[in-house]
Amino acid sequence: MNEVKKKSILVVDDTPANLRLLVEMLTQHGYRVRPASTGEWALTTVQKELPDLILLDIMMPQLDGYEVCRRLKADERTRSIPVIFISALDEIFDKMTAFSIGGVDYITKPFQVEEVLARVRTHLGLEEMRQTLQAQNRQLQEQNQELDAFAHTVAHDLKSPLAKALASLSLMQECLPDLDEDMRQLLQISINASRKMNNIIDELLLLAGVRRAAVQMAPVNMAEVVNQALSRLSPMIDQYQPKLVVADSWPVAQGYAPWLEEVWANYLSNGLKYGGQPPRLELGATPQGDGAVRFWVRDYGPGLSPETQAQLFTEFTRLTSVRVEGHGLGLSIVRRIMNKLGGHCGVESAPGQGSEFYFTLRGVEGTQGN
């Protein structure tokens, strides 16, 4: 009951008997109630102290309930206050008007006490949950920003010393050709590990930067982007010797080409590593009925279980989060890029049946890339 007593309700009605009845009823049930007999009075008193909820009569002289509600919703300070309309009118038009201007509920006269109390409790509870969720969302956004800033700072600070270490190792390999076999192997292991760490740092920098970056969406020639991704992965392609089947023509979609190259590179590198021995990869696009285009990389590897699929694109909430083995940060980057570009990403797979990794973007009507 202590929590209920803290709730403040503004009751607005130009009929003294109705106003008195509502004030007495709500006061008896532990609410703090303020009465207002006109729309003008209601707008004045609400600015002095914001109520948790407003019961608002519709049919009042000079300033009716509709106009009062419109003014409340136009004011940033008062727009989130739940408004329950009360009126003797019961036509569909009046209810539609009440909801369209921001009312959360509608009670007709003569009203039942139990009904009024139930609706008041319901909407006070909903508003409390909304405020709680809003606060949690703000907190999560702040935490995400802090994590992004931390990841960016750490990765940036590691980049320079690692580059020097890698350069020194490469110089040693070049200048000391007479090392014995064991030393040459150890040196190569160190170089490979340094290169892998450098790739992880690049991924961290991209992951941290995508959410904060403001990019200009434009029609993307996907054929060029795919070719750039394939060229970038040429060492892996030479290593795995895949069978590549690439579409002859590509629909044009709205996006940001540098980020989409990252998406293709991530999908392709996964396909090269897990798409069979030797890998067979098919790249293509399928226009969707809603104007979007689905771009995909299909492989014929061992496939993925539903449990693994559910984890693949999960964004990290902590830097210590466990990754799905073999997929690194890449698919988290894909998801973050798609969220930023207004698209979707996912995978369709089953054990023993290969996988299709895809992303969708809004297509550009009447255009086709080569």
Question: How would you sum up this structure, described in words?
Answer:
The protein has 370 residues and is of the alpha/beta class. It has three domains: 2-111, Rossmann fold; 141-210; 218-369, Histidine kinase-like ATPase, C-terminal domain (Heat Shock Protein 90), CATH 3.30.565.10. It is 52% helix and 20% strand. The chain is built from twelve helices and twelve strands. The protein has helices spanning 2-5, 16-28, 39-48, 65-74, 92-100, 113-175, 181-210, 222-232, 234-240, 257-274, 306-312, 330-341, and strands at residues 8-12, 32-36, 53-57, 83-87, 105-108, 218-220, 243-246, 250-255, 280-287, 292-299, 344-349, 355-369. Helix 10 (257-274) packs antiparallel against helix 12 (330-341). The radius of gyration is 31 Å and the shape is elongated. Mean pLDDT is 86; it is low at 317-327.
Fold blueprint:
Layout: H1 2-5, E1 8-12, H2 16-28, E2 32-36, H3 39-48, E3 53-57, H4 65-74, E4 83-87, H5 92-100, E5 105-108, H6 113-175, H7 181-210, E6 218-220, H8 222-232, H9 234-240, E7 243-246, E8 250-255, H10 257-274, E9 280-287, E10 292-299, H11 306-312, H12 330-341, E11 344-349, E12 355-369
Parallel strand pairs: 1-2, 1-3, 3-4, 4-5, 7-9
Antiparallel strand pairs: 6-8, 8-12, 9-10, 10-12, 11-12
Helix pairs in contact: 3-4, 6-7, 7-12, 8-10, 10-12
What structural keywords apply?
12 strands; 370 residues; 3 domains; seven-stranded mixed β-sheet; Heat Shock Protein 90; elongated; five-stranded parallel β-sheet
